[in-house]
Amino acid sequence: MKNNIIYSISFFAIIIALNSCNQKEHSKTITTDPILSEVEIELENLTNVWYPKSIDTVNGGFWSDFNYKWDKEGAQNKMIVSQARHIWTTSVLAEHYKDKKYEKIAKHGYHFLRDKMWDSINGGFHTLVGFVGDGLKVISKNKSTYGNAFAIYGLATYYKVSDDTAALDLAKKTFSWIEEHAHDSIYKGYFDVLQQDGSWMLDITEDKGYDNFKRKDWKDQNSSIHLLECLSALYEVWPNDLVRERLEELLILIRDTITTEKGYLTLHLHRDWSPVTFKDSSAIYQKQNFGLDHVSFGHDVETAFLMLEASHILGRKKDTLTELKAKQMVDHGIAKGWDNKEGGFYDGGFYYTQDTCTVVKEAKVWWTEAEGLNSLLLMSKLYPNNPEYYNLFQKQWQYIKKNMIDHKYHGWYAEGMDTDSQADKKVKAQIWKVNYHNIRSLINVTQMLKGEFILTKELH
Fold this sequence. Notes:
Distance between the termini: 55 Å
Radius of gyration: 21 Å
Order of helices and strands: HHEHHEEEHHEEHHEHEHHEEHHH
Helix content: 40-55%
Strand order of the largest sheet: 1-2-3
Shape: globular
Number of strands: 10
């Protein structure tokens, strides 16, 4: 009860300030570029609909579940990934807007991770806590490297804007925990699915309700690319030799091994990095296992950006190999997963033959469209002599405005209205849907259009 009172009192002033500020708009850049002005307005709308509404002043951290009208509705379980993403997002907003109130929100989230989600017995962050009986209890059965990576991402970025060394210390502690428990010293890279004490699950044969039990023996692109992302953030504020070594290790693994020669990511891989594939299986079995083996266009265009970001943070000058691989990944997404009629990237495809990638999941998911917007503009800046990238960027923004943004209640639909006509009546937030993809994209796009983005600044 004491902690609940503290949370409520400490955020009373913040909520008043936020509600007051939400009646005003942040200052806009005077510009003749209509897309920049529109993106800045949407960034404000998106920010204001999430904060302070999502701040949980009773239990700490952030509320997880909202319906399409932004009423709290659902279990309100708290997952390390979404809680940490809120910390990252509000830290970046604090930097972008030069506004301390977002730093205070990030601090609130950091305290929740520190006090409620860290495993004081085994180390590492729990994956999921939920309301059981009279309070929050751990309800996840095992730990996730992916989840702990996002904790580092949020904590390191919060330290960058706050200079709170205790938050950086917790990020370092999390890195050490991942390094000790998840890193494969023989084949390199990291396992994602771990037991509660951090031990590997390779010898576990009985599924006792474990999370992601089916892929316990595998490595995967998703945890790898987000480890790359989090270690980029950590190395930027803590240039430690081992962090650098692991960041370079992941960059090379993702670029040269996980990414195929065609320019898309292998989703799952065995310990020795040989692909997990169902290409030689029956059509029924392929369909049943589509989630484990397909072309994820969203991850491909996102990874193109994350590799270039990591290369920059590492100070790799004239990293032509990484730049060309990033371009190939975006080009493959455009060639195989882009909707030429309406715009937008489809969710997933499959190579049923060596040369033909068939779109299997036509859904256009919010995070894929956000990452596509970011990477298309990035490619247009890196390759200004190819006007196709900017043309597609313009079309992507028009697609998002028409099909993804809720102009009545604000926020983004989980899926585009063109592929799900009922998307406007579905939830706006849940533990896997927060705001880090689209807010990051809008901030990056704003900075690119102003000539201020770190990866392209020298081009202006």
